[in-house]
Amino acid sequence: MEFHVKDLSLADLGKNRIEWAEMDMPVLRKEIRKRFVEEKPLKGIRIGACLHVTTETANLMRTLKEGGAEVYLCASNPLSTQDDVAAALVKHYDIPVFAIKGEDEETYYMHIEEVLKRKPHITMDDGADLISTLHMKHQDLIPNVIGGTEETTTGVIRLKAMAKDGALRYPVIAVNEAMTKHLFDNRYGTGQSTIDGILRATNRLLSGSIFVVAGYGWCGRGVAMRARGMGAEVIVTEVDPIKAIEARMDGYRVMPMEKAAEKGDIFCTVTGNIHVIRKEHFERMKDGAIVCNSGHFNVEIDIPALESLAVEKRRVRPFVDEYKLSDGRRIYLLAEGRLVNLSAAEGHPASVMDMSFANQALSAEYIVKEGKNLEPNVYVVPEHIDKKVAELKLKALGIEIDQLTEEQIRYLNSWEMGT
To answer: Which amino acids does the record list as binding substrate (predicted)?
Structure first.
């Protein structure tokens, strides 16, 4: 199989959209890709990527290829693929893609297998499905791998568990942990795109509604901030006492999901954990409650429990399934419990993904140079790369900042001077 996409005739539309996103990705386009074209730091390297197949990802793939790499791409979620983008990558950029929006689980993993057949030197994950499949089914390929990268919180959690168990066989850079990734991508990207997905799916007015956010990590902060900005009353549920205090100090109501379940009009999970909304919560929800997830996997909502409670199910709008309970109450699940921001909308805006994918590109370059010197473990993005991405973003935006004077540098490095 050379590639597997829905329809190559969509390629021209995809190309236009890729170019549109590229205009808002100056760090990747002007700073990194220009140097990669000249230096070819990835020459001879095969990169297997399991990422959301979007316009922004397309521009990362183009940059990696311009750097000399052979790039192979599959989807990291069955519903997040933009079929026109997948077609454009194949037809216009000669990058093999294995991804179709709405693919079933068997096809999803078949596509991962297609990427692994190319014997990648670097794995690039969003959720760790590529690396976990490699470790479980294709350990013979591990000696070929120099290292990998991981894009999202859920994937980093899985990889740290692998490292703790001694199962991780090569070094992985946790791109998600970069300051220029999670402070911006997770907060502003997830915040805006999640609300976008909910609105596209439902066309509901958020103003005046009660919006429940499960989890107050950087993604939860972003969703809560944007929901409040559109006039919703926001309730936050948490298990971490420090994050719960922070949410309260930020002006949100904080309570257990058991209590929030009775009050909410819209529920959104962003925890990275399993069964955050469960049977006992569905039983307390009001008629017409809308439930969705913006965490990586569709396990945050206990969908089998909702199925067991329902006496009738029907699709009332694209990406909206109505579950009618025995007492007549209706609960609406968006995007089958998968990432609502990528399933029902287009994911993060290009401007914020510019920094995230700049980290990906530079981390891949770092792995080529230093991967053989790293032990199998999960590593943060080197500080010099993180700061470089910030510097390049500021430069692209035309923003200047102060520099420390020699006197200030001496002061910060001394202990003699006091009051």
So the answer is: 54, 126, 151, 181, 185
Per residue in 316-327, pLDDT tens?
Answer: 999 999 999 999
CATH of domain 8-181+348-397: 3.40.50.1480
Task: Tell me if 185 is assigned to a ligand binding site.
Answer: yes
CA distance 80 to 348: 12
Give 189-343's CATH code, choosing from 3.30.450.40, 3.10.690.10, 3.40.50.720, 3.50.50.60. Answer: 3.40.50.720
341 among annotated binding-site residues: yes
Close Cβ partners of 298 (under 8 Å, ≥ 6 residues apart): 336, 337, 338
How would DSSP label each residue in 36-105?
A: HHHH-TTTT-EEEEEE--SHHHHHHHHHHHHTT-EEEEEESSTT---HHHHHHHHHTT---EE--TT--H
Query: What six digits make up the tokens of 288?
Result: 């017409």
Confirm whether residue 54 is marked as ligand binding.
Answer: yes
370 marked as part of a ligand binding site: no
**Residue 348 annotated as part of some ligand binding site:** yes
**pTM of the predicted model, to two decimals?**
0.91
The span from the CA of 51 to the CA of 209, in Å, is: 34
pLDDT digit string, tens, across residues 288-297 = 999 999 998 8
CB 268 within 8 A of CB 212: yes
Cα distance between residue 419 and residue 198, in whole Å: 54
272 is in an annotated binding site: no
